[in-house]
Amino acid sequence: MKCSIEDGATVAVTKCLKIKPEDSVLIVADAPSKDIGMAIRQKSLEITDKVRFFNLDLPSYGGRPLKTMPNSLVEAIKKATAAFFVAGPMEGELETLRGPFLQLIVQKARLAHMVGVNETIMKTGMCVDYDKVATITNRLYDLLVKTTEIKVTSPAGTDFTATFDPDIKWIPCTGIIDKIGVWDNLPSGEVFTAPKTFQGRIVVDGTIGDWIEMKYSGKVDYQETPLIIDVEHEIGGSFIKKIKCDHKELLADFKSYVNSEANASRIGEVGLGTNVFLKEIIGNILQDEKFSTVHVAFGDPYHEKTGATWASDYHIDLLMRKCSIWLDGRQIMDEGKYIKEILG
Is the link from the previous residue into 59 a cis peptide, with omega within 30 of 0? Predict the structure, then answer.
């Protein structure tokens, strides 16, 4: 079935956030995502007349990247019961805008976090059966909560082992956002946690997130020029010990990012994608981290969700292609293919 932006907006509004007539909807967009934001606005207006739309690129807000959250947006958050954040990432805005926005909105509303969403994503990752995504996600979650150790390899050279603390939660992301205080990235489909220990090599031949993704989109083929990261566990966490990449500017930008603060170079996330409807990696981490493979992140461990006892103002996701996965010695994925027990 051929899908449109409007079809993706319909799924986001009616299936994922389940907007109701009594909802007050807040939509935050920017110039590149304006058409997507407007499609979500139109679908929301078919259900409720209480819809606010913000374009962060308006000159009156002072120019991107924004140094603070606009007062008018802060006031709108106070009235919202559901929100869609579709504006793209900008260097520095995780600390000044997106982080504070998330902290405020989840106090009284539910949030579809869609940073970097584009037309391709609306026509692919959003046009899927989220009931099926939820079923697969929950099956995998049931296995992961009992897991003490995961081993991951890939044809490109990824080879790491991570262990887990039972007090740190695995988080299933199904795309169903129907309770106050709940937020999820859309498109959805993953299970993630903050590992207790992490040791080994990551060969990033898929996608790199945050503003680095935007800067190098279409300019670097990570399969030809992967980012190679060696991580070692030590007292106090698992940190980067060595980084290699033949693309010198990318290497310099990534080093700068993970050296921004002490915990920016600490492994904060291990995640497994469960949106089996995705057919290819598109170079956008918002969708690609839901692909059937493994991603990791340096920086914040989503401590408010996982219960991790540390935090960071930074978080950058990295995707590896065609991963094979073993949970406590039992293989559940072979080069990007889940076993039948997961798929059902």
Answer: no
